[in-house]
Fold:
Amino acid sequence: MRRTDTLRGLVRETELSPAHLIQPAFVVAGEGVREEVPSMPGIERFSINNLVEEAGEIAAAGIGALMLFGIPAMKDEFGTGAYDDEGVVQMAVRALKEAHPDLIVITDVCLCEYTSHGHCGVIRDGTEVDNDVTVELLAKTAISHAEAGADVVAPSDMMDGRIGSIRFQLDEEGHPGVPIIAYSAKYASAFYGPFRDAAESTPKSGDRRGYQMDPANAAEAVREAELDLDEGADMLMVKPALPYLDVVRRVKEATGAPVAAYHVSGEYSMLKAAAASGWIDERAAVVEALTSIRRAGADAIVTYYAKEAAAWLR
Ligand code: PBG
Structure:
């Protein structure tokens, strides 16, 4: 059954199409900005007007959704830019939904791009992130995204109890229809390096191991996923993707819930670098990597390759 392409097509178990892909995008304050991220060839940071144009191409490519990350003009200790109704993400969401009403816009809910210290929450006693104070600010952020018109919110902070709090407050504030993609199993990974360049979110001191997961654990990921479902998550995220395919599989099998996997910046940049050196066939390697993530059990894949892969898959 492997002899010809048509025969292989008859028995192929895994399907990969643009509709399964989510394109992350970085939006910056200002106008007319379009700057390449040096560590992520092919990925640019856009100001709102340019992002709206880019989003038109993403929608036309049949990609499932756009996931938005904001880089504010100013950062402070409490990450106030994250829950400012006139913040860069809130304004971008309004512009995107007006220009492309059918394109699904998912917003990243986290404080790390907005805090001066670069951690995902408010710092207490100079060292630790204060979980409960942070959860309140995350809920505030999610509500301001929903008010702006976000279709889905995706908290990526890894604080305890944030899904329940965000769900409760979204419902209270009149947004019961906005689903939550919970980053349930987000690992303290070295593969986020290029993203932190792009989002200017490298912690000024310390690291994220106090709140993100230990790469050595998988049973814990299943527990985190179950907690998030209990608190009202609609979809679960595992991140990164390729080094954690076993976790994708376990979370999918244990919960049966919709699962997304985040093919992160480091995974993207490694492929780009190897391709640029002529060491791998980029197109074949990317399609194989994305197919493998689907085969492991992911329904959707967040990947910086979404736009390029969509063109290849057509
Ligand atoms: C944090 C966040 C991170 C990524 C997405 N959201 C990075 C981090 O925890 O430092 C990483 C994504 C990537 O590497 O592509 N809000």
